[in-house]
Amino acid sequence: MSSMSAPSSRFKLPPDAALALVAVVVLALSAPHGLLDKADRAAYAVCHRLADHSFVIGGRQLPLCARCSGTYLGALAGLAVLVLLGRGKAGRFPSRPQLLVLGAFMLVWAIDGTNSFLSLMGWPHLYEPKNLLRLVTGTLEGIAIAAVLLPALNLTLWRKPGPQRSVGNWLDLVWLLAGGGVMILAVSSEMDALLLPLALLSGAMIPALLGVLNAMLYLAGIHREGCAERRREVVAPFLIGLALALVEIVLIGIAREALTARFGLPF
Hints:
Layout (H helix, E strand, L loop, with lengths): L14 H15 L5 H10 L11 E2 L2 E2 L4 H19 L5 E3 L3 H25 L10 H27 L4 E4 L4 H20 L5 H27 L13 H29 L4
Parallel strand pairs: 3-4
Antiparallel strand pairs: 1-2
C-alpha cells in the first residue's frame, strides 16, 4: 500500500529574510538593555533630543523632542485611524482637496521648524517657539505622512491593493485630526502613567517607519513591486526592511557621536 504525503503548507522564510530575522533579534537584544534606554537610543539617531525642546513625564525626558514626538506618534495615530476606517489596504492617494490640506499641514510644520531653528541659533525669528506648538505641528506632519505612506506602501506590496483612497472625504480628515488630537493631549498632559506607553510607542515607530521605507525600496530594487497576494508574502520584505532600519539607527548614532566629539555640535 503506497502512501502519498500532502504537500507541506508550512511557511518558510527565504534565506535573506531568515538572516534579517537573526539580525533583528541580535540588534534588539544588544545594549542598551532597558526598554526606555532602547527608545532613547533609537531617537538619538533621528532627533536632536534637546531637553528644553522636549516634554518630561515622571521626571524623564521623552525619547523624542516635542516636534518629533508629534511626527512619529501622529503618524501612528493616523495609520491606526485609517485602519479603523477600513482603509488598511487603500491603494489610492488622498483626493486633491485633501492633498492640499495635507500639504498645508506640512507647510505649517516647516514654518514652525524653521522658526524654532532660527531661535535656537540666536538669529532673528518670527515668534517665540513653544513645545506645545512644536507638538501640534509635528502631529500634523505625522498625519500627512500616514495618509500618503499607506497607499504608497499598498501599491508597492499588493498585486490588488484596495480601490479606495486613504483619505477620500472631509470626515476622514476630521477623524485623522481627532486621532492626532488624542496623541497631543496624551503627551502634553505629562501624566506619569503615560511615560512607558508614549516612550515605547514613539521609540518603536522610528525603526517601524524606516523599516517600511526600506521594505519599499528593497522591493523596488529587486523589481517585485505589486506582487504579493497573501499576507505571508510580505513578511520577508518587512523583516529585511526592519533589519536595515536597525543597522541604520546604529550607524547614524555612531556617526552622530563622532561628529559631536569632533566638532562640539550643540545637539
